[in-house]
Write a structure and sequence with these properties.
This protein is α/β, with parallel strands linked by helices and about 350 residues long. The chain folds into two domains: about 170 residues, Rossmann fold; about 180 residues, Glycogen Phosphorylase B (Rossmann fold, 3-Layer(aba) Sandwich). Helices cover about 40% and strands about 15% of the residues. The chain has 13 helices and 15 strands. The strands form four sheets. The protein has a six-stranded parallel β-sheet with strand order 12-11-10-13-14-15, sandwiched between helices. Strands 6-7-8-9 form a four-stranded parallel β-sheet, sandwiched between helices. Strands 1-4-3 form a three-stranded mixed β-sheet, covered by helices on one side. The radius of gyration is 22 Å and the shape is globular.
Length: about 350
């Protein structure tokens, strides 16, 4: 059974209008319960309350499960949640593991911030994180490079780059492809993620009845909106919920991830869109990111060069392929992730890793 402790998904007051967040419990299934922490949503006070809540919740968990096979699993690297859990683990000799979806020092750099207070808080957070990030009993990393950077004490680790919810994909009804050629990007619209290059590359291709659909938000949004006004083939479509995006991914011709592979942070990330795109059955064209395991590259198209001219040529080449070729390639990718990267397979790897130690 899993009991998940979660801090409320709200920004601190006054960025959020929520000043007081009441305790809440969601019973997802017989084996999964999520408890949301009660907080006074003021910067600083909120953090202290979360620390106390994590301490007492992990304390209750450890007392209740004393003598049983149990473990504490942290969902990310954070001093203010990890430190209280580690105190409890020392008292009750319960092992603590960390899932590492991001390297903390790179998260703050994904988008630019001119707020001096936020920059200072971010630097303080990075320093505090270093006090606990190498004190776990084991790690679940997204990429092998995370292990090289963070696992300074050579603790046991496993690489779980991502997963797909097999039930969600199989429950979606069949959808026919659009008649025109559609290239689609859905995600964070940061210039650092290659969105500018994608737009410039698309403007160079020479295919009739071809459009670029862009979904999402980020620091490059205003420029994309301007491009969509100036060029009718570049269409900014706003934001959609996950279910709508999953359906749209299935009707387009080609999905794309233009994230530059030479940026240092790409070694420590595996874009979750990779398995999501592949599970759609629509072919994926991606940069050859170092964080993507080699086994994936036989199931996706890749940019050999990442300047706008060569990217444009590659997009044009793939969009010019026969429909049956594209469909066959996309279905092979779908079969690969549904069989090898579904949530059941990946979760079993984590459970075996934790309890075999």
């Amino acid at each position: 059974n899993v009991i998940a402790i979660s801090e409320p998904p709200v920004a601190s007051y006054p960025r959020s209008k929520c000043l007081w967040y009441k305790r809440k419990k969601d019973v997802i299934s017989e084996k999964l319960t999520i408890k949301y922490i009660k907080i006074l949503n003021l910067l600083g006070i909120k953090t202290l309350l979360i620390m106390f809540a994590v301490f007492f919740e992990t304390l209750k968990f450890s007392i209740k499960n004393r003598g049983k096979k149990s473990a504490i699993l942290m969902g990310y690297l954070s001093f203010y949640t990890s430190f209280p859990a580690m105190i409890v683990s020392k008292i009750f000799k319960v092992k603590v593991f960390a899932v590492v979806p991001d390297v903390p020092q790179y998260v703050s750099g994904y988008s630019k911030s001119n707020n001096a207070i936020r920059c200072c808080l971010s630097k303080l957070s990075e320093r505090l994180n270093k006090l606990t990030e190498n004190k776990f009993n084991g790690y679940i990393f997204l990429t092998k490079y995370m292990n090289e950077l963070l696992n300074r004490n050579k603790k046991p680790y496993i690489i779980i780059e991502g997963f797909i919810n097999k039930d969600d994909i199989l429950s979606t009804e069949s959808i026919y492809k659009e008649s025109k050629k559609i290239l689609m990007y859905a995600g964070t619209l940061h210039e650092k993620f290659g969105v500018k290059k994608l737009v410039e590359a698309f403007k160079l291709i020479n295919i009739d009845n071809c459009v670029l659909w862009i979904y999402g938000e980020g620091d490059y949004l205003k420029k994309i909106q301007k491009e969509s006004v100036d060029n009718r083939n570049i269409q900014y479509k706003g934001t959609k919920n996950k279910e709508e995006i999953l359906k749209l991914e299935r009707v387009v011709t080609l999905l794309v991830n233009p994230r530059p592979s030479d940026e240092e942070f790409t070694k420590y990330s595996f874009p979750s869109k990779t398995v999501e795109y592949m599970a759609s059955g629509t072919p994926l064209l991606t940069t050859k990111l170092p964080g993507i395991p080699e086994e994936y590259f036989q199931y996706v198209y890749t940019f050999e060069e990442e300047d706008t001219v060569e990217m444009g040529k590659k997009i044009e080449k793939i969009l010019s392929l026969p429909d049956n070729t594209l469909n066959h390639f996309g279905l092979k990718a779908k079969e690969f992730v549904l069989k090898n990267k579904n949530h059941t397979v990946q979760a079993k790897k984590i459970i075996d890793f934790i309890f075999d130690m």
